[in-house]
Amino acid sequence: MVTVSVEGLSVALGRREVVAGVTARFDSGELVGIIGPNGAGKSTLVRAMLGLVPAHAGSVAIDGVAVGRMAARDRARALAYLPQGQTLHWPLDVERLVALGRLPHLAPLSRIGAEDRAAVAEAMARADVGHLSHRIATELSGGERARVMLARALAVGAQGLVVDEPLAALDPGHQIDVMELLAREAREGALVVTVLHDLTMAARYCDRLILMDQGRVVAEGAPAAVLTAETLRRVYGISAKVDLSGETPMVVPLGRV
């Protein structure tokens, strides 16, 4: 179990405040989607939750411990992170790439052991990339690469998973694959936090949504409470057809207001 508590968090990049007074709580067993327009502060919020950017006001704690007081290794063991726009530069085979997720558990210059290899194999099975183990990662398709990078994050063995825009540049089928994987991790007890732009995917898979605009949380709750036509008009400046009544919720942008 892992809990992340954010209290009155504000973050400035240069002279611009990009996260302003955010308070939120994240618990194990839920898939939380962070949504909002471009520049709303979503990615900065999750980076601050991980201790990757400093706060100038407020606090973030993981299981009651302030992130600023945690060693980077301990933060990585608690919350695995997959940033947006991951680019592969080295022609590693998939198994070796996924094994990089074990680095928070290894001493300097040490080699992976039996426990690490078991964690890598389990992560690859959970992400359904075991059959790719000997492929060169730079030669994979976009959908394959997305699942491999998720496997690397899962290999950490953390109780929480933070994923920033995992659906970018994926076709609809691979988007479904990724969201099914994230939802399954949450159902099995992990805390999963993901930044999303696809509102239909957010409505369909997330247990809870946090809607940000101009650095602030403007709505929070179940998808049906957050994704209203009026809220989308006010925050995104769009008209939209919203149907969250069935088993396959849909949010279809219709045009600019």
TrEMBL record:
Chain ranges passing through the membrane: none
Pfam families tied to this protein: ABC_tran
CDD domains noted in UniProt: ABC_Iron-Siderophores_B12_Hemin (cd03214)
Domain ABC transporter: 4-239
Keywords, in A-Z order: ATP-binding, Nucleotide-binding, Translocase, Transport
Keyword NADP: no
Record-level Gene Ontology MF annotations: ATP binding
Keyword Nucleotide-binding carried by entry: yes
Function text: Part of the ABC transporter complex HmuTUV involved in hemin import. Responsible for energy coupling to the transport system.
Cross-referenced PANTHER family: HEMIN IMPORT ATP-BINDING PROTEIN HMUV
UniProt protein name: ABC transporter ATP-binding protein
Lineage: Bacteria, Pseudomonadati, Pseudomonadota, Alphaproteobacteria, Sphingomonadales
